Amino acid sequence: MPEIITDPTDPRVADFRDLKAGDRPAGTPRGTGPVIVEGVPAVQRLLASPYRVRAVLGVPGRVAALGLPDDVPAYEADKWVLSEVIGFRLTRGVVASADRRPPADLDGLLTGPDPAAPRRLAVLEALNDAENLGSIARSAVALGVDGLLLDPRCADPLYRRSVRVSMGHVLSLPFAVLPGWPVGLDRLHDAGYLTVALTPAADAVDLADVDPRAHPRTAMLLGAEGPGLTPEAQAAARVRARIPMRSGVDSLGVAAAAAVAFASLR
């Protein structure tokens, strides 16, 4: 049974304190600290993931309904105490923390468990908006992408807002950092990937012309909202491709464009 929390300063719920200060507990350096997961569906995905759950906190009824294993510390608090702990009103009723896991081994991610199987990767350049990253991760899981490769400037895919927007799906998606950007793309080429840079440029090929049956290993490059991919990243890719659009519309948001591109490459 969950234990009752009545004091917002109770050390047992320290993982959740003052989350309004950012995407992680106040004073925690970027890329460190516990993974924070909000909402019943996302916490259920956390429980099914390889991440070790540290604690679960929620309003009465929500935590017990999760059917947590006996070894997971579980706490309940009324909505006022819960809001005072985390620093904002949690409409999803439950929040969990988990230990971080290190990024995946890059070579292992490129190869996959079956080196002969088709592979799809998403490669993100300077995508520093956590919510866009979370939305891309959700689409990636839904549409058959096997992992994320991030350049060194990307946001942390395990930020609270990224995990929330992904509905917890990012926890099942392996990711790795690709150093030496963009020359590091040669490691994908050596592993047999066709790298496709997504751009609205008029001289890019139609995305529909990139036949996934002819390229069983494909990596889709996506840039940040607004600036898009740098010229250097586009030049390093094997193909520049665009999503055909109605006249007068120059581009889609990066999360929407990613979903279209992932579906096209299935």
From TrEMBL:
Compositionally biased residues, Basic and acidic residues: 9-23
Chain positions covered by the region annotation Disordered: 1-33
One BP term from GO: methylation
Gene Ontology MF term list: methyltransferase activity
Record has Acyltransferase as a keyword: no
Keywords noted in UniProt: Methyltransferase, Transferase
Domain of life: Bacteria
The protein's name in its UniProt record: RNA methyltransferase
Keyword set includes Methyltransferase: yes
Coiled-coil region(s): none
Domain tRNA/rRNA methyltransferase SpoU type: 122-262
Family annotation (Gene3D superfamilies): 3.40.1280.10
PANTHER family assigned: RRNA METHYLASE, RRNA METHYLTRANSFERASE 3
